[in-house]
Amino acid sequence: MRVGVILAAGLAQLAFIACGDDEPELSDDERVRQIAGVAELAANAYAAAGPEGLYDYLAPQVTERCSKINLVATLDEEDVPDGFRRLASVEFDGTEATARVVQLFGDEERETGWVFASLSGNTWRLIDVPGLDRCRN
Questions:
Q1: What are the pLDDT digits (tens) for 8-54?
Q2: Is there a contact between 35 and 97 (Cβ–Cβ < 8 Å)?
Q3: pLDDT the model gives residue 121
Q4: Angle at the Cα of 104 (from 96 to 130), degrees rounded to 5?
Q5: In Å, how far from its chain's centre is CA 81?
Q6: Whole-model pTM?
Q7: Residues near 95 by Cβ (< 8 Å), separated by ≥ 6?
Q8: Residues paired with residue 128 on neighbouring β-strands, in sequence order
Q9: 50 near 121, Cβ under 8 Å?
Q10: How many domains does the chain have?
């Protein structure tokens, strides 16, 4: 009996892997994977803590002009997402990348543009999200 349950679980897992998911692969580009990871962390931090959650994911050139207190005040009128869904696309322009980030807002998915900058090494940080351009110290 126990072997049958283990075998059934294994077969179910293989069937899931064989079917794959219906979402297209973005790229095998390591930069896309790095940006996807930062986007997911930032979006979930935003969902959990509001605008304050985004602050640790901002590039230094943004935090120099936008304090955490001002970020919270600036993004106060923006809808706070419920979580990250996926990265729809990424386009590179030199050391910057524009990503289409799909987030959950209740039962709805919304796609917005986030801009990332490459810092030294393989680190990516946010330089723009909707409403961030209004933030000044």
A1: 444 344 443 344 444 445 668 999 999 999 999 999 999 999 999 99
A2: yes
A3: 72
A4: 40
A5: 11
A6: 0.79
A7: 117, 118
A8: 115
A9: no
A10: 1
Residue type, 2: R
Could you give the CA distance from residue 5 to residue 11 in angstroms, rounded to a whole number? 10
Confidence of residue 120 (pLDDT cuts 50, 70, 90): confident
> In this structure, are residues 132 and 119 in contact, taking their beta carbons and an 8 Å threshold?
no
The full DSSP string for 75-95 is GGGSPPPSEEEEEEEEEEETT
Residues in the chain: 137
CATH code at 76?
3.10.450
The label of the residue with tokens 């723009």 reads: 128
| 136: its two tokens | 């000044």
Question: Is 16 a domain residue?
Answer: no
Q: Look up residue 32 and give its two tokens.
A: 């896309």
Residue 59: give the domain boundaries. Answer: 27-134
Is 45 part of a structural domain of the chain? yes
So what's the pLDDT on residue 97? 97
Where do runs of H (alpha helix) occur along the chain?
2-19, 30-49, 51-54, 60-63, 68-74
Tokens at 89, concatenated: 């696309």
In tens, the pLDDT along 67-78 reads 999 999 999 989
